[in-house]
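Narrative summary of target 7.
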Amino acid sequence: MVEFLRRLSSATLSVVTVPQRRERRPMNRADALRLLQDGLSGITRWNAERASGQPIADLSGIQLSGVKLCHRDPTTRQRVAADLSDVRLVDARFDGADLSRVNLENADLSGASLTGARLTRARLVRATLARADLSNATLRGAGLRLADLWRTRCVEADLRDAVLAKSTLASTDLTGADLRGATLYEALAVRTNFLGAKLDRAYLRRCRFVGANLTNATIEGARVDGMTLDDLAGLPNAPSELRSGDRRISGDEARHFFHKEFSVELFLTERLTERELGAYHFHLDELHSRDSALGVAFVGCRSEADGTVLRFQVAIAMRSIERYLIYWLRFAGTRWQIGARRRRSSRLGSDRKRWLPWPARKPRSRPADGSLRAAWQPLSKDSIKRG
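Modeled conformation, tokenized:
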């Protein structure tokens, strides 16, 4: 006991101060801008800060036009690209910037300007690009899976081999865009403008086109099995060959794949005679001889109530059929009503049917005796040419 007390009295007491753990503050905008503009060393430090869990401030509206965010390390001969995942970049400017291989996963680029930017093999999975401007941008091989491109402007953009699987292309402007070899698996294209776009060899399996404009688009060799087409605003150039699984679609089947089939019925309030029906056959043949109304075929008629129902097979856009019917009906001078039964082709999915009623039209000038036959009297070659 005495020995223990002697040792205790001779011992020295030292106090160790443990530093308090301070909460890391997010990197401010000035530091972020300095690092992103500082070349390879700046990008390396930026990625190190991100890897350590350093929070990033809101970079909305940041100006990085013409900046290069991907560099080759001369030591390792590997490319080093900035990690901008989960960063808020609303209304940021990247015009002419090099964002090749940059990680933009979950980034918010709403309203951002990327005109002429280079995003080759960039990672944009689940990125928000609503109202962004990607005109003339290069996104070759970019990953845009589950991306939101609502009202995004991609005019003349290079999207070759890009992956847009399950992405949202609502009101997206893809005029003249190059989508050759792109993957649009289960993508939703609502009122998307594909005017003059190149979709050759694109993977369109189970893709949904609703109200999309495909006017003058090319789609040779695309895979189209399970594809849904509804209310197309314009048709692409007729392809010579398409693919559906392991089967190749060619000939007339490929050329008419995007032509929706309609059964259109026209109800006239008065019954037509054989002479009047013959006059209409003559009128339709005359249109066909002038390469007009080629997608309209008169397939039959029937009497119903106090009128006549004319039935047509239509292979053109629904909005175009009315002008062909009015072209003839102005000679008839009778009240009419039209309804269309849309039938999906078996290659496009189920046999869903619906009616599209059109409002009744007011009659034009009627004959003095009130008969429909008298209204047909001017129906001749000369009167058709004048119309």
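Confidence is low (pLDDT under 50) at residues 331-387.
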